[in-house]
Design brief:
- Helix content is about 50%, strand content about 0%.
- With about 190 residues, the protein is mainly α.
- This is 9253_t:CDS:1.
- It comes from Funneliformis geosporum.
Length: about 190
Amino acid sequence: MSSVFNADVNEFIKDCMANLEGNCSSPFAEISRLTNYAYSASRIYHHWHNNLNWCLCHDPLTQGEKNYIDVWVCQHRLPNGEIRWTVLQKEMQQVFLKLHNTNKIKNYWRSNQHRTLRTANTSVQNGGNTNLVPLLPPSVLLNNGNNSTSASPTAIPFILGTSRPSALEPSYNLSEPQFNMPYKMRPFF
């Protein structure tokens, strides 16, 4: 069983990274070897990039950064639904001059998606309409299921809630009957 990272191990990893970062092709594997494999190289890698990296900004995301994440995901999400979080992280670092860890970015986006889905479900059940972003990949939402990878020009307003494709809005009212009354047979005479 792997050991838990403590303050002494964290300082050891920071010191090793300061010495190995430019001089070693795989510093995380070397740190793993130096700890007698108490921690795997991938575990040290993730701990470094999510917690210890001295370039990381530990402040919460600003509203501008949250909006940037929403728009970026809509524009760059792959047709199979995959999102390249490390690419987004690097672009955000260039735009906002802050390096947020990928877990913080993913956690914001996923929690926002779940919140919007819950709100959408509640709104539809109450008979109202909603302007929220669903979790479906953009190829399904914006390209009507075609395999085209080009983003629709309605992508950004769709995310910001200013407009919404009419195909996604429910066309029924829950207060009205869902089915037509059955046709009653009438006698011929």
